[in-house]
Amino acid sequence: MTKEERYRRVIAYFEQSMPEAKAELEYGSAFQLLVAVMLSAQCTDKRVNSVTPALFEAYPDAEAMAQATAEEVLEYIKSVSYPNSKSRHLVGMARMLASEMGGEVPQEIEQLQRLPGVGRKTANVVAAVYFNQPAMPVDTHVFRVSNRLGLAVGAKNPLEAERELVKYLPGELLPKAHHWLLLHGRYVCQSRRPRCEACGLTEVCLHHKTLHRKEVRR
């Protein structure tokens, strides 16, 4: 099977099984999505969604959060991972938006990465999810699934996986494809115990073929 054929079959499967894939983080604006994604680093979406309603009520936009101190923001996000550094980054991000960008979240990935606490993955998420740009965020789920399926086999880091996925996936599908791979990794192709019995991609999955060969040898 060629790589192009593997991509076509993976796309066809997800188009049928997950046609309405979307983010599980809850937000009402580009600023709120940016905040939620920053909070989600090494933390579950469920936990983030439990703290953001009160946080967004207190600080609905960049101008409001720019007036806060890190200590004040910390009181709202204590239950997420790394709350001290995240509260500092959130306030720094909001202040830069307010002082240099008119309080508006930029669409450009390069501009997003200028903001404190915003790395390439976070910038890609905002660009793809909110602005529907042809960007491919690669988190641990996307990295794992793309390697296992053979979409980015051999990629040594998220950037290499991102480049491979962008090369072969149609640009208009990238925002949706991000959710396909992420949700598949979160609920089916899990890290320690992939649920191959619940997966419709075993025929094209390189990881599954490797597991099958090992079982045959036994």
Layout: helices, strands, pairs:
Layout: H1 3-17, H2 30-39, H3 45-58, H4 62-66, H5 70-77, H6 83-100, H7 109-112, H8 120-130, H9 140-149, H10 158-168, H11 174-187, H12 206-217
Helix pairs in contact: 2-8, 5-6, 9-10, 9-11
Q: Could you give the distance between the termini?
A: 26 Å
Helix content: 55-70%
Oligomeric state of the chains in view: single chain
Number of domains: 2
Structural category is mainly alpha
> How would you spell out the order of helices and strands?
HHHHHHHHHHHH
The CATH H-level superfamily of the largest domain is Helix-hairpin-Helix base-excision DNA repair enzymes (C-terminal)
Shape: elongated
- Care to count the β-strands? 0
Percent of sequence in beta strands = under 5%
**Second CATH tier, the architecture of the largest domain:** Orthogonal Bundle
Detail the poorly predicted runs: none
Question: Could you walk me through the main structural features you see in this protein, from its secondary elements to its overall organization?
Answer:
It is a single chain. The chain has twelve helices and no strands. It is mainly α. The chain folds into two domains: 3-21 and 136-217, Orthogonal Bundle (Endonuclease Iii, domain 2); 30-130, Orthogonal Bundle (Endonuclease III, domain 1). Helix 9 (140-149) packs across helix 11 (174-187). It starts with a helix and ends with a helix. The model has no long low-confidence stretch (mean pLDDT 94).
